[in-house]
DNA sequence: CCCCTTACACGT
DNA sequence: ACGTGTAAGGGG
Protein backbone atom coordinates (compact mmCIF):
# COMPACT_ATOMS: atom_id res chain seq x y z
CA UNK A 1 0.00 0.00 0.00
CA UNK A 2 1.65 3.16 -1.02
CA UNK A 3 1.23 6.21 1.06
CA UNK A 4 1.97 9.68 -0.10
CA UNK A 5 2.67 10.94 3.39
CA UNK A 6 5.02 8.27 4.55
CA UNK A 7 7.48 10.85 5.75
CA UNK A 8 8.27 10.14 9.31
CA UNK A 9 7.33 12.95 11.59
CA UNK A 10 8.02 13.53 15.21
CA UNK A 11 4.93 12.53 17.09
CA UNK A 12 2.72 15.44 17.72
CA UNK A 13 -0.13 14.87 20.04
CA UNK A 14 -3.26 16.79 20.60
CA UNK A 15 -2.86 17.58 24.27
CA UNK A 16 0.34 19.14 25.59
CA UNK A 17 0.31 16.66 28.46
CA UNK A 18 -1.27 13.45 27.21
CA UNK A 19 -2.38 10.93 29.82
CA UNK A 20 -0.26 7.85 29.97
CA UNK A 21 -2.66 4.97 30.13
CA UNK A 22 -5.95 6.14 28.74
CA UNK A 23 -4.99 8.32 25.83
CA UNK A 24 -8.09 10.37 25.32
CA UNK A 25 -6.35 12.95 23.27
CA UNK A 26 -8.94 15.59 22.66
CA UNK A 27 -12.45 15.52 24.04
CA UNK A 28 -14.00 16.55 20.80
CA UNK A 29 -17.16 14.67 21.61
CA UNK A 30 -17.88 17.62 23.84
CA UNK A 31 -17.94 20.98 22.17
CA UNK A 32 -15.38 23.37 23.47
CA UNK A 33 -16.87 26.30 25.37
CA UNK A 34 -17.51 29.49 23.56
CA UNK A 35 -19.44 30.31 20.45
CA UNK A 36 -20.12 27.50 18.08
CA UNK A 37 -17.57 27.85 15.39
CA UNK A 38 -19.59 26.53 12.50
CA UNK A 39 -23.26 27.10 13.14
CA UNK A 40 -24.25 25.99 9.73
CA UNK A 41 -23.39 22.37 10.32
CA UNK A 42 -24.63 22.02 13.82
CA UNK A 43 -28.21 21.72 12.74
CA UNK A 44 -29.29 18.20 13.62
CA UNK A 45 -31.35 17.81 10.51
CA UNK A 46 -30.54 19.28 7.17
CA UNK A 47 -32.91 22.09 6.66
CA UNK A 48 -34.84 22.67 3.54
CA UNK A 49 -32.67 24.62 1.28
CA UNK A 50 -33.40 27.33 -1.10
CA UNK A 51 -33.89 26.03 -4.58
CA UNK A 52 -30.90 28.01 -5.77
CA UNK A 53 -28.72 26.27 -3.29
CA UNK A 54 -29.96 22.85 -4.27
CA UNK A 55 -29.58 23.49 -7.95
CA UNK A 56 -26.15 24.82 -7.33
CA UNK A 57 -25.10 21.71 -5.47
CA UNK A 58 -26.38 19.66 -8.35
CA UNK A 59 -24.38 21.73 -10.77
CA UNK A 60 -21.21 21.51 -8.74
CA UNK A 61 -21.36 17.87 -7.95
CA UNK A 62 -22.81 16.13 -10.92
CA UNK A 63 -20.92 16.37 -14.17
CA UNK A 64 -23.66 14.63 -16.10
CA UNK A 65 -26.25 16.92 -14.67
CA UNK A 66 -24.11 19.88 -15.65
CA UNK A 67 -23.70 18.76 -19.24
CA UNK A 68 -27.37 18.08 -19.54
CA UNK A 69 -28.23 21.42 -18.08
CA UNK A 70 -25.94 23.32 -20.38
CA UNK A 71 -26.98 21.49 -23.51
CA UNK A 72 -30.61 22.05 -22.68
CA UNK A 73 -29.84 25.65 -22.14
CA UNK A 74 -28.04 25.92 -25.44
CA UNK A 75 -30.96 24.26 -27.22
CA UNK A 76 -33.33 26.77 -25.71
CA UNK A 77 -31.62 29.61 -27.52
CA UNK A 78 -30.53 32.97 -26.22
CA UNK A 79 -33.88 33.80 -24.71
CA UNK A 80 -34.43 30.33 -23.37
CA UNK A 81 -34.22 29.10 -19.86
CA UNK A 82 -33.52 25.60 -18.66
CA UNK A 83 -35.68 24.25 -15.92
CA UNK A 84 -35.01 21.32 -13.68
CA UNK A 85 -38.30 19.73 -14.34
CA UNK A 86 -38.88 16.80 -12.12
CA UNK A 87 -37.57 14.67 -9.28
CA UNK A 88 -35.47 12.41 -11.43
CA UNK A 89 -33.50 15.39 -12.56
CA UNK A 90 -34.85 15.74 -16.06
CA UNK A 91 -34.18 19.12 -17.47
CA UNK A 92 -36.63 20.83 -19.71
CA UNK A 93 -37.21 24.15 -21.33
CA UNK A 94 -40.94 23.77 -21.16
CA UNK A 95 -43.42 24.87 -18.55
CA UNK A 96 -44.79 22.14 -16.32
CA UNK A 97 -47.71 20.31 -17.82
CA UNK A 98 -49.97 20.41 -14.83
CA UNK A 99 -52.16 23.46 -14.56
CA UNK A 100 -51.24 25.77 -11.71
CA UNK A 101 -53.48 25.26 -8.73
CA UNK A 102 -54.71 21.85 -9.79
CA UNK A 103 -54.49 18.98 -7.28
CA UNK A 104 -52.12 17.19 -9.59
CA UNK A 105 -49.83 20.14 -9.70
CA UNK A 106 -49.86 20.51 -5.95
CA UNK A 107 -49.03 16.86 -5.50
CA UNK A 108 -46.11 16.84 -7.85
CA UNK A 109 -44.86 20.06 -6.36
CA UNK A 110 -44.95 18.60 -2.88
CA UNK A 111 -43.17 15.52 -4.14
CA UNK A 112 -40.45 17.63 -5.65
CA UNK A 113 -39.96 19.59 -2.50
CA UNK A 114 -39.83 16.47 -0.37
CA UNK A 115 -37.49 14.58 -2.65
CA UNK A 116 -35.07 17.29 -3.52
CA UNK A 117 -35.94 20.18 -1.29
CA UNK A 118 -36.19 22.14 -4.43
CA UNK A 119 -39.11 23.30 -6.45
CA UNK A 120 -38.25 24.41 -9.91
CA UNK A 121 -41.55 24.10 -11.67
CA UNK A 122 -42.97 27.44 -10.75
CA UNK A 123 -41.89 28.77 -14.11
CA UNK A 124 -40.51 31.96 -12.65
CA UNK A 125 -37.29 33.36 -13.95
CA UNK A 126 -34.55 32.91 -11.49
CA UNK A 127 -31.34 34.60 -10.65
CA UNK A 128 -28.62 32.70 -8.89
CA UNK A 129 -27.35 34.54 -5.87
CA UNK A 130 -23.76 33.44 -5.78
CA UNK A 131 -20.54 35.19 -5.16
CA UNK A 132 -16.94 34.23 -5.50
CA UNK A 133 -13.68 35.70 -4.30
CA UNK A 134 -10.04 34.79 -4.02
CA UNK A 135 -7.98 35.24 -0.89
CA UNK A 136 -4.21 35.07 -1.15
CA UNK A 137 -2.67 32.84 1.43
CA UNK A 138 0.71 31.34 2.25
CA UNK A 139 -0.68 28.16 0.75
CA UNK A 140 -1.63 29.66 -2.53
CA UNK A 141 -4.79 31.44 -3.61
CA UNK A 142 -7.96 30.28 -1.90
CA UNK A 143 -11.09 30.50 -3.95
CA UNK A 144 -14.24 31.04 -1.94
CA UNK A 145 -17.76 30.46 -3.15
CA UNK A 146 -20.82 31.57 -1.22
CA UNK A 147 -24.55 31.10 -1.58
CA UNK A 148 -27.36 32.90 0.23
CA UNK A 149 -27.22 30.15 2.85
CA UNK A 150 -23.58 30.54 3.65
CA UNK A 151 -20.10 29.61 2.60
CA UNK A 152 -20.33 26.94 -0.02
CA UNK A 153 -16.84 25.97 -0.94
CA UNK A 154 -13.21 26.69 -0.26
CA UNK A 155 -10.91 25.61 -2.99
CA UNK A 156 -7.15 25.62 -3.16
CA UNK A 157 -6.03 27.37 -6.29
CA UNK A 158 -4.06 25.27 -8.69
CA UNK A 159 -0.74 26.94 -8.09
CA UNK A 160 1.46 24.26 -6.65
CA UNK A 161 4.57 26.29 -7.42
CA UNK A 162 5.09 28.32 -4.33
CA UNK A 163 8.21 28.09 -2.29
CA UNK A 164 9.06 24.60 -1.20
CA UNK A 165 5.74 23.39 -2.43
CA UNK A 166 7.02 23.44 -5.97
CA UNK A 167 9.05 20.38 -5.10
CA UNK A 168 6.06 18.20 -4.52
CA UNK A 169 6.70 15.16 -6.69
CA UNK A 170 3.09 14.45 -7.55
CA UNK A 171 0.77 17.26 -8.30
CA UNK A 172 -1.65 17.85 -5.45
CA UNK A 173 -4.88 15.99 -5.96
CA UNK A 174 -6.96 19.10 -6.36
CA UNK A 175 -10.33 18.08 -7.67
CA UNK A 176 -11.54 19.97 -10.67
CA UNK A 177 -14.31 22.32 -9.72
CA UNK A 178 -16.19 24.30 -12.30
CA UNK A 179 -15.77 28.02 -12.28
CA UNK A 180 -18.50 30.26 -11.12
CA UNK A 181 -18.92 31.54 -14.63
CA UNK A 182 -19.52 28.09 -15.93
CA UNK A 183 -21.91 27.24 -13.17
CA UNK A 184 -23.99 30.33 -13.63
CA UNK A 185 -24.12 30.36 -17.39
CA UNK A 186 -27.71 30.96 -18.32
CA UNK A 187 -28.51 32.50 -14.99
CA UNK A 188 -28.65 36.08 -14.11
CA UNK A 189 -26.31 36.64 -11.26
CA UNK A 190 -27.63 38.73 -8.46
CA UNK A 191 -25.18 38.66 -5.57
CA UNK A 192 -26.91 39.98 -2.50
CA UNK A 193 -27.07 37.73 0.53
CA UNK A 194 -24.23 35.61 -0.74
CA UNK A 195 -21.96 38.62 -0.80
CA UNK A 196 -22.35 39.12 2.93
CA UNK A 197 -21.39 35.53 3.62
CA UNK A 198 -18.50 35.82 1.25
CA UNK A 199 -17.30 39.01 2.89
CA UNK A 200 -17.36 37.40 6.31
CA UNK A 201 -15.52 34.35 5.08
CA UNK A 202 -12.82 36.43 3.40
CA UNK A 203 -12.33 38.55 6.49
CA UNK A 204 -12.09 35.60 8.83
CA UNK A 205 -9.78 33.72 6.54
CA UNK A 206 -7.45 36.70 6.37
CA UNK A 207 -7.51 36.94 10.14
CA UNK A 208 -6.68 33.26 10.33
CA UNK A 209 -3.77 33.82 7.99
CA UNK A 210 -2.56 36.71 10.13
CA UNK A 211 -2.78 34.60 13.28
CA UNK A 212 -5.48 36.80 14.76
CA UNK A 213 -8.25 34.23 14.53
CA UNK A 214 -8.45 30.66 15.72
CA UNK A 215 -12.12 29.91 15.24
CA UNK A 216 -14.39 30.51 12.29
CA UNK A 217 -17.86 31.80 12.89
CA UNK A 218 -19.60 31.50 9.57
CA UNK A 219 -22.81 30.24 8.14
CA UNK A 220 -22.04 27.21 6.02
CA UNK A 221 -23.97 25.86 3.11
CA UNK A 222 -23.13 22.20 3.06
CA UNK A 223 -24.13 20.02 0.18
CA UNK A 224 -26.70 17.38 0.97
CA UNK A 225 -24.62 14.50 2.26
CA UNK A 226 -25.08 11.38 4.29
CA UNK A 227 -25.66 11.55 8.02
CA UNK A 228 -22.32 10.09 8.99
CA UNK A 229 -20.26 12.31 6.75
CA UNK A 230 -22.22 15.24 8.04
CA UNK A 231 -21.49 14.23 11.60
CA UNK A 232 -17.81 13.90 10.78
CA UNK A 233 -17.69 17.36 9.26
CA UNK A 234 -19.53 18.75 12.25
CA UNK A 235 -16.95 17.31 14.62
CA UNK A 236 -14.16 18.91 12.66
CA UNK A 237 -15.30 22.27 13.98
CA UNK A 238 -14.70 21.08 17.53
CA UNK A 239 -11.03 20.33 17.11
CA UNK A 240 -9.18 23.17 18.69
CA UNK A 241 -6.71 25.33 16.89
CA UNK A 242 -3.23 23.95 17.05
CA UNK A 243 -4.35 20.51 18.14
CA UNK A 244 -4.62 17.26 16.24
CA UNK A 245 -6.60 14.09 16.58
CA UNK A 246 -6.51 10.83 14.71
CA UNK A 247 -9.02 9.63 12.17
CA UNK A 248 -10.23 6.94 14.53
CA UNK A 249 -10.82 9.51 17.24
CA UNK A 250 -12.72 11.62 14.80
CA UNK A 251 -14.72 8.58 13.77
CA UNK A 252 -15.51 7.82 17.39
CA UNK A 253 -16.55 11.39 18.04
CA UNK A 254 -18.91 11.17 15.09
CA UNK A 255 -20.45 8.07 16.63
CA UNK A 256 -18.76 5.20 14.78
CA UNK A 257 -15.54 4.25 16.55
CA UNK A 258 -14.51 1.76 13.91
CA UNK A 259 -15.28 3.88 10.91
CA UNK A 260 -11.93 5.61 10.75
CA UNK A 261 -11.63 5.09 7.09
CA UNK A 262 -15.08 6.40 6.46
CA UNK A 263 -14.09 9.46 8.46
CA UNK A 264 -11.16 9.85 6.14
CA UNK A 265 -13.46 9.60 3.17
CA UNK A 266 -15.61 12.33 4.64
CA UNK A 267 -12.57 14.53 5.10
CA UNK A 268 -11.50 13.81 1.55
CA UNK A 269 -14.76 15.31 0.37
CA UNK A 270 -14.67 18.21 2.78
CA UNK A 271 -15.99 21.12 0.72
CA UNK A 272 -14.61 23.67 3.15
CA UNK A 273 -10.98 22.89 3.93
CA UNK A 274 -9.31 25.19 6.48
CA UNK A 275 -12.70 26.39 7.72
CA UNK A 276 -13.58 22.83 8.63
CA UNK A 277 -10.17 21.82 9.85
CA UNK A 278 -9.61 18.47 8.27
CA UNK A 279 -5.90 19.28 8.33
CA UNK A 280 -5.99 18.67 12.10
CA UNK A 281 -6.83 15.02 11.57
CA UNK A 282 -3.81 12.76 11.22
CA UNK A 283 -2.97 9.09 11.29
CA UNK A 284 -2.97 7.32 14.60
CA UNK A 285 0.77 6.69 14.37
CA UNK A 286 1.43 10.40 14.31
CA UNK A 287 2.16 10.76 10.62
CA UNK A 288 0.22 13.20 8.56
CA UNK A 289 -2.09 11.22 6.33
CA UNK A 290 -3.65 12.78 3.29
CA UNK A 291 -5.11 16.13 2.45
CA UNK A 292 -7.08 17.53 -0.47
CA UNK A 293 -4.31 19.95 -1.29
CA UNK A 294 -1.49 17.52 -0.65
CA UNK A 295 0.55 16.58 2.39
CA UNK A 296 2.81 19.61 2.17
CA UNK A 297 -0.14 21.97 2.47
CA UNK A 298 -1.39 19.97 5.40
CA UNK A 299 1.99 20.21 7.03
CA UNK A 300 2.14 23.92 6.33
CA UNK A 301 -1.28 24.51 7.86
CA UNK A 302 -0.31 22.66 11.02
CA UNK A 303 2.95 24.53 11.16
CA UNK A 304 0.98 27.75 10.85
CA UNK A 305 -1.00 26.71 13.90
CA UNK A 306 2.15 25.95 15.85
CA UNK A 307 1.67 22.23 16.06
CA UNK A 308 5.33 21.51 15.51
CA UNK A 309 6.45 24.50 17.52
CA UNK A 310 7.41 23.12 20.87
C1' DC B 1 -15.45 -0.38 -5.89
C1' DC B 2 -13.21 3.70 -3.94
C1' DC B 3 -11.41 6.38 0.09
C1' DC B 4 -7.15 11.79 3.73
C1' DT B 5 -7.30 4.32 8.15
C1' DT B 6 -5.73 0.91 11.45
C1' DA B 7 -3.63 -2.94 13.61
C1' DC B 8 -0.57 -6.49 13.08
C1' DA B 9 2.94 -9.18 10.85
C1' DC B 10 7.18 -9.71 9.14
C1' DG B 11 11.43 -8.08 7.04
C1' DT B 12 15.62 -5.07 7.53
C1' DA C 1 13.15 1.44 15.30
C1' DC C 2 11.66 1.76 10.51
C1' DG C 3 9.64 0.31 6.06
C1' DT C 4 6.34 -2.44 3.60
C1' DG C 5 2.56 -5.61 3.07
C1' DT C 6 -2.08 -7.20 4.22
C1' DA C 7 -6.69 -7.67 5.69
C1' DA C 8 -10.48 -5.78 8.08
C1' DG C 9 -13.18 -2.02 8.14
C1' DG C 10 -17.74 1.57 7.29
C1' DG C 11 -20.06 4.47 4.38
C1' DG C 12 -21.36 6.15 -0.11
Automatic annotation (TrEMBL):
Q: What are the entry keywords?
A: DNA damage, DNA repair, Methyltransferase, Transferase
Bias (Basic and acidic residues) ranges: 104-125
Q: Give, as one word, the top-level EC class.
A: transferase
Keyword Transferase assigned to the entry: answer is yes
Q: Which Gene3D superfamilies does the UniProt record give?
A: Methylated DNA-protein cysteine methyltransferase domain (3.30.160.70), Winged helix-like DNA-binding domain superfamily/Winged helix DNA-binding domain (1.10.10.10)
Top-rank lineage group of the source organism: Bacteria
Q: Name one GO molecular function term.
A: methylated-DNA-[protein]-cysteine S-methyltransferase activity
Give me the ranges of the annotated region Disordered: 1-45, 75-125
Q: Biological process GO terms, please?
A: DNA repair; methylation
Cite the Methylated-DNA-[protein]-cysteine S-methyltransferase DNA binding domain residue spans from the record.
Answer: 228-307
* InterPro entries from the UniProt entry: MethylDNA_cys_MeTrfase_DNA-bd, MethylDNA_cys_MeTrfase_DNAb, MGMT_N_sf, WH-like_DNA-bd_sf
What's the catalysed reaction? a 6-O-methyl-2'-deoxyguanosine in DNA + L-cysteinyl-[protein] = S-methyl-L-cysteinyl-[protein] + a 2'-deoxyguanosine in DNA; a 4-O-methyl-thymidine in DNA + L-cysteinyl-[protein] = a thymidine in DNA + S-methyl-L-cysteinyl-[protein]
Give the record's family classification: Belongs to the MGMT family.
Protein name, per record: methylated-DNA--[protein]-cysteine S-methyltransferase
Q: Origin organism of this chain?
A: Mycetocola tolaasinivorans
The organism's lineage?
Bacteria, Bacillati, Actinomycetota, Actinomycetes, Micrococcales
